[in-house]
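Chain A, query sequence.
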Amino acid sequence: MKEIISIIDAYETAQKKGEATALATVVKVEGSSYRGAGARMLITEKGQLSGAISGGCLEGDALRRALMVIIQNKPLLVKYDTSEENGDVFGVGLGCEGIIYVLIEPIDNKQILNPVYFLKQCLKKRSPNILVSLFSKSNKKSSKQGTYTLIRMGQALGINNEINWADFETEISEIFSTKTSLFKSFKLENEAFEIFFEYIAPRTRLVIAGAGNDVIPLVEAGEILGWEMVLLDGRPSHANKQRFPTCQLLIGQAGKVLKEVNLDEYTALLLMTHNYNYDKEIVKWALDKEIKYIGMLGPKKKWAMMKEEIIAEGFDLLQIEMHSPMGLDIGAESSEEIALSVLAEIKAVFADSKGGSLFKQEGRIHPDRFYHYK
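Chain A, predicted structure.
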């Protein structure tokens, strides 16, 4: 999500300067690649790049082609073959062993429903979205290629750009259910296309109880990731904009501030107050909430004692999985290292990943479980 935020910021800056822009999107990958489908990069007519479509090996050529797209004001699908040892295709010998399809489309500032507008909508509501793009492998210069629409869960499906999205209601329901993107073959005016239904989840949000010094590096790292952050604490001397300028601050006793907190399946709750009773009150409040990750600093015996007390008070803890101590085992000691450990564990949980070493993983880095094909 940080990439989308950076692209939006760069686009708005270019608009103020009166500069034309194009958006390059990885719309499909066959084999292995550094970035998966959905990676993006904004290019301005002055050659400024925001985002990335690879580890740096494709950006130079994509920049050259994007400038041509801006001048001609027509979309272009570019195929990069990184699997061959020899040949004249750009990207040969990069070692990724994959074929990468990048759709480069000009952004019409006069057109309200342009690609960046749809990206902005992904940030406005905490709901899953499907961003829909069309591309043609057989006609890489087809003018019908591009980002077509954004679909939200529960939204009425209508006709957009001569396409009746209600015809894809089954596929769209499946995407929202499985939280995976989908590729589907499609014909528009007898021309063969593929539709990339890209599933985009809401921004990961951290609700952090505690405003001690050890929270500062965690918030700073969360900001780099582009995550939303809400901070709860009863001490105005600690929870203030001087110390936490990017956080939403809720200051007061737990019973008071928790009334202003909303949790969803894309929110992680972190207990870092070093105040046993404050943490305990938050745990009891969270028991009936929809939440995918809850973690607490401290030794295992702290959670064992708290758990015993909460059960004795008549609460059911069967539905809760407390990450305590929270974080991955990376040998963390300092606050900065602990922040890295905790955020890595949250990312792994939200991605349904084991969090192991990639060199021990068999198969692709970007597994097919994130994509469906029809």
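The mean pLDDT is 88. The CA atoms of residues 7 and 167 lie 31 Å apart.
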